[in-house]
């Protein structure tokens, strides 16, 4: 059985700068894989490649065995890949519930004319979207519940915005979730909560998860497997213990021995 | 039927005017990422200031000064007036919107454009102003020149084209070879980072408006030396200058020059060999082709999407 | 914003049991919520008004609008009413593109023109085609949508800036085609600069609606326009409250995030664009069926700016807002046509402006006293020098005014030009002053403005109307970008 998501020999360069080179990566169904690496290692670029924002110069990316290279981002999302952004990108002036409802676009159907005529089918679908959004928001306990549903997203705190981004991503009904630094900027209690939540996304939600994270406690707590990147090259892969003690990883993070890395 | 040479001469004159206007759009877009819709109207005001100066100095019929000095004074006053106008527009209509949603300064620019065009109409009426009526009676300026084969080449055309070219070269030097130019380029790459590096972004922006508007003023005079000017001309010329900037690659100085000349050529040859009525259609087709096949323009860089 | 009160410490605290423990997050949310609520009777009224469902308000509005011809028998006023409904329709369409889609469509009026010309071509003696209204209206609406799609297509990958250029150029091109359309390969299609002048009136099932009834404007057109307005209002509202509408607004907020969340943004942009174009084309047919004629110059950038002013003033994104904006701007334009009304409007604006700026304070007293005295002194001095430089009025408001503001019998043009330039410079300059400086400088500026208004602007209502609109756009963008009824918006920082 092929891996759910697989990157084969993927390379990407901007001008003369090689951002990702010959990267092999696979994520199996039900796994939680963490990507670590210093700033500028190419982690977010990796996410952009998978979600179709960038197209690789070389190599292939497959989801469930079929290539997704060259597809526009919205098609890739419809095939089952959803992501969050490191720099939050919510629809700030939409309400919390609308943010989540909007992400159901890919798997719903009522078009402009049916909306204008408000046909029974369209109304039924609209009720389903609403129910879906409320269910996804309920996943976060009482954090995003009740009176918050009708508030604009900009009124949320930073931590809740991160939660809302995850809720929005899950509303696309993905098979695999890409989380870009879900614990960035959170305090220790919130970080702990996020780590628990990622586990719960797999057990209760049934999502396969690829996560970029800087907080090593989180990485240690959640990962089945860890991949370390530096300068767009995979330098280590394995369990957290193996990767954390790998000399190349230590060097990449601490800059030992190499004067040109930072 | 005008000859090829005449058309080429016309294309170069018109092209220089478009190029100078396009530079103003490009410069401002570079530092502020703002399409300054009011730029065409600054151009129009420039042509009116030049007319006023010409009137005040009595024209060539009743010369207070020699004709060459007359031209210099007319151009300089238009440039100075436009520079002041440009700075005022930036200070009062755009600066308060520096951090507003992107659509806000665009709408403000539309408002300014509308305000300028209608103010000029209010004060000076909708009728055309013809520089020739002041310069012709002196006789020489429009006719003096030399002949190539049977084609008469007026000196005024040559002066126009050359001075536009000199201004563009000077601008290129200013932007690429001076400290101020370096600050402008830094601001256009990343205004926030430039500010942190100790560049006074406000000064850079004001300076950019001075440059762009002064060029528009010069272009206004050059335009009005060719055909009469009127209060509503800013919209059309602004649109053309704008298109030239986009075709050349918005933000690029050589791009604006190339785009301007290309547009001037398209318009002149269409008018000469086909019909003046549809020259807009030709220009629009060129714009659409660029939008589809090369949206970054001839000399522009394709942006990498930042996530 | 002075009318919004910060969190009132005496307001009853929300019961703690409702919802989770109060953290920073909850505090921010509740604080924000409270800040948005007005205090006192006004706040109560606003809360009640917000609780009324939108359809009830729409029905109320339509009922009130339907009564207008019953109350007002003047043909002029009824005709202005019809024009206002046309503007309301145009504003609703533009609101889809700009307010929800976030797309700067500067060719919008060209689609209005497409509808108008299509009706004039397919329903006139020009080519002897007379489509029944029942066929013509939907067909031309669809045609508008198709043309909208075609124009939007080349700019599909591009940001708002490029769309703005292409659409603005399209507007220019439309005018060119309409003007030169009398010689397309030897055929006369658009009638050139003379336009087409014999378009049919609306006809339903063989009965055509008379344009005039006993020599005055026939009110049936007003009702047809109002009915179409109601339809368009409801249809676009429903569109907005659907997955399509949500995705329009999502793509306005963040196109990249929208795309990654599964929305085909290029297609969605085109649908928003085409919906706006369809509404504009539909409006064009109604307009032409009444006027019976189309001319190239009716679809100029001037009309475009007018519609933008309506949408921005009312609050882009809010349907009620843009309708209100359309009414206010059209009424404003009508008032500016008439010297007496324009005069009253100006002084009213000054009084309201000064009152809101200074409230009831010592500064207010100084400003008022200085302004009044200054005027009479200047008037007396000028009159003493040369009586014809400062005429005197007879009775009424303008009579009193004429003793205050200098109105020469014959104004030398350069005086007007210099005064206008000075006025602009001083009004801009005064925004840079603070405190007592402003108080001292304000009266001469007011006086100068009054002089310019009376002598330069009122006699030229054409340009003046549009100068006012231009200034309105700039001031609105700076002072209140969300307009009168627009939702408060934030941008990503």
Fold and architecture overview:
The complex is a heterotrimer of chains A (262), B (307) and C (493). Helices cover 37% and strands 23% of the residues of chain A. Chain A is an alpha/beta fold. A six-stranded mixed β-sheet of chain A has the order 6-7-8-3-9-10, with helices on both faces. In chain A, strands 2-1-4-5 form a four-stranded antiparallel β-sheet, covered by helices on one side. In chain A, a hairpin with a 2-residue loop joins strand 1 and strand 2. The relative contact order of chain A is 0.17. The C terminus of chain A is likely disordered. The mean pLDDT of chain B is 87. Chain B has 307 residues and is an all-alpha fold. Chain C is mainly alpha-helical. Chain C has a two-stranded antiparallel ribbon with strand order 1-2. In chain C, a hairpin with a 2-residue loop joins strand 3 and strand 4. In chain C, helix 5 packs across helix 11 and helix 17 runs antiparallel to helix 18. The longest helix of chain C is centred in the middle third of the chain and has 27 residues. The chains are: A alpha/beta (262), B mainly alpha (307), C mainly alpha (493). At the B-C interface, helix 3, helix 4, helix 10 and helix 12 of B face helix 7, helix 12, helix 17 and helix 19 of C.
């Amino acid at each position: 059985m092929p891996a759910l998501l697989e990157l084969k020999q993927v390379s990407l360069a901007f001008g003369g700068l090689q951002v990702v080179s010959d990267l092999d990566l696979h994520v199996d169904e039900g796994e939680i894989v963490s990507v670590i690496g210093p700033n500028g290692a190419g982690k977010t670029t990796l996410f952009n490649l998978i979600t179709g924002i960038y197209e690789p110069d070389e190599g292939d990316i497959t989801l469930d065995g079929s290539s997704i290279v060259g597809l526009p981002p919205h098609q890739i999302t419809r095939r089952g890949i959803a992501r969050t952004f490191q720099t939050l990108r919510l629809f700030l002036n939409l309400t919390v519930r609308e943010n989540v409802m909007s992400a159901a676009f890919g798997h719903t159907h009522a078009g402009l004319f049916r909306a204008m005529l408000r046909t029974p089918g369209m109304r039924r679908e609209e009720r389903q979207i609403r129910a879906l959004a409320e269910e996804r928001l309920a996943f976060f306990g009482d954090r995003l519940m009740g009176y918050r549903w009708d508030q604009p997203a900009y009124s949320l705190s930073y931590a809740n915005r991160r939660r809302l981004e995850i809720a929005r991503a899950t509303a696309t009904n993905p098979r695999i979730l890409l989380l870009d630094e879900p614990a960035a900027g959170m305090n220790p209690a919130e970080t702990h909560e996020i780590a628990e939540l990622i586990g719960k996304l797999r057990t209760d939600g049934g999502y396969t998860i690829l996560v970029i994270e800087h907080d090593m406690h989180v990485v240690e707590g959640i990962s089945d497997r860890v991949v370390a990147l530096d300068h767009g090259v995979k330098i280590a892969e394995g369990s957290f213990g193996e990767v954390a003690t790998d000399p190349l990883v230590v060097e990449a993070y601490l800059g030992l021995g190499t004067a040109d890395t930072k | 039927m005008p000859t090829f040479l005449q058309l080429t001469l016309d294309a170069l004159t018109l092209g220089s005017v478009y190029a100078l206007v396009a530079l103003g759009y490009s410069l401002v877009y570079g530092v502020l990422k703002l399409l300054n819709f009011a730029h065409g109207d600054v151009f129009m005001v420039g042509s009116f200031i030049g007319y006023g100066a010409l009137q005040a100095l009595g024209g060539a019929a009743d010369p207070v000064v020699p004709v060459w000095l007359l031209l210099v004074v007319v151009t300089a006053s238009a440039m100075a007036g436009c520079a002041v106008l440009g700075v005022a527009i930036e200070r009062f209509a755009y600066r308060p919107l520096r951090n507003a949603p992107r659509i806000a300064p665009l709408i403000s620019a539309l408002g300014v454009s509308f305000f300028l065009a209608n103010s000029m109409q209010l004060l000076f009426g909708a009728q055309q102003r013809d520089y020739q009526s002041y310069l012709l009676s002196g006789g020489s300026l429009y006719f003096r020149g030399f002949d190539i084969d049977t084609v008469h080449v007026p000196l005024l055309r040559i002066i126009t084209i050359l001075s536009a070219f000199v201004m563009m070269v000077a601008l290129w030097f200013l932007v690429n070879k001076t400290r101020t130019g370096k600050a402008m380029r830094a601001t256009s790459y990343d205004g926030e980072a430039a500010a942190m590096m100790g560049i006074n972004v406000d000064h850079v922006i004001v300076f950019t408006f001075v440059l762009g508007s002064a060029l528009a003023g010069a272009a206004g005079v050059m335009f009005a030396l060719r055909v009469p000017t009127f209060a509503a001309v800013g919209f059309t010329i602004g649109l053309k200058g704008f298109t030239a900037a986009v075709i050349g690659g918005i933000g690029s100085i050589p791009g604006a020059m190339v785009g301007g000349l290309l547009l001037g050529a398209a318009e002149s040859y269409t008018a000469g060999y086909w019909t003046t009525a549809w020259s807009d259609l030709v220009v629009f087709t060129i714009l659409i082709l660029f939008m589809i096949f090369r949206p970054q323009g001839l000399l522009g860089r394709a942006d990498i999407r930042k996530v | 914003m002075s009318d919004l009160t910060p969190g009132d410490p005496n307001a009853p605290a929300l019961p703690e049991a409702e919802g989770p423990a109060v953290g920073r997050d909850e505090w921010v949310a509740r604080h924000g919520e409270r800040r948005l609520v007005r205090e006192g009777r006004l706040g109560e009224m606003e809360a009640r008004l917000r609780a009324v469902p939108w359809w009830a308000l729409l029905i109320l509005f339509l009922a009130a609008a339907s009564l207008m011809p019953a109350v007002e028998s003047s043909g002029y006023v009824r005709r202005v009413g019809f024009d206002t409904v046309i503007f309301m329709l145009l504003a609703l369409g533009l609101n889809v593109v700009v307010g929800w889609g976030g797309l700067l469509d500067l060719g919008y009026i060209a689609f209005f023109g497409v509808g108008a010309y299509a009706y004039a071509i397919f329903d006139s003696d020009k080519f002897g085609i007379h489509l029944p209204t029942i066929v013509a209206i939907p067909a031309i609406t669809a045609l508008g949508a198709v043309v909208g799609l075609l124009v939007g297509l080349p700019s599909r990958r591009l940001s708002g800036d490029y769309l703005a250029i292409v659409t603005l150029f399209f507007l220019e091109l439309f005018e060119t085609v309409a003007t030169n359309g009398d010689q397309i390969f030897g055929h006369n299609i658009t009638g050139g600069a003379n336009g087409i002048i014999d378009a049919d009136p609306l006809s339903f099932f063989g009965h055509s609606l008379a344009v005039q009834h006993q020599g005055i404007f026939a009110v049936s057109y007003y009702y047809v326009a109002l009915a179409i307005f109601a339809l368009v209002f409801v249809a676009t509202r429903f569109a907005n409250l659907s997955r399509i509408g949500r995705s329009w607004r999502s793509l306005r907020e963040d196109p990249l995030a929208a795309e990654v969340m599964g929305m085909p943004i290029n297609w969605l942009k085109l649908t928003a664009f085409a919906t706006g174009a369809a509404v504009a084309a539909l409006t064009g047919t109604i307009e032409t069926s009444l006027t019976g004629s189309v001319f190239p110059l009716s679809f100029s950038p001037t009309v475009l700016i007018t519609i933008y002013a309506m949408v921005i003033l009312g609050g882009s994104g809010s349907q009620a807002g843009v309708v209100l904006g359309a009414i206010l701007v059209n009424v404003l334009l009508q008032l500016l046509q008439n010297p007496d009304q324009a005069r009253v409007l100006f002084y009213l604006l000054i009084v309201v402006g000064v009152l809101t700026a200074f409230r009831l304070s010592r500064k207010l007293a100084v400003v008022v006293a200085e302004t009044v005295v200054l005027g009479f002194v200047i008037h007396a001095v000028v009159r003493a020098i040369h009586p014809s430089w400062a005429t005197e009025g007879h009775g009424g408001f303008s009579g009193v005014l004429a003793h205050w503001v200098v109105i020469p019998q014959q104004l030398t043009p350069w005086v007007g030009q210099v005064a206008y330039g000075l006025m602009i410079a001083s009004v801009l300059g005064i925004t840079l002053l603070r405190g007592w400086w402003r108080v001292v400088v304000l009266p001469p500026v007011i006086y100068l403005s009054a002089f310019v208004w009376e002598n330069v602007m009122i006699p030229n209502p054409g340009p003046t109307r549009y100068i006012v609109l231009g200034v309105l756009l700039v001031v609105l963008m700076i002072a209140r970008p969300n307009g009168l009824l627009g939702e408060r918006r934030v941008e990503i920082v």
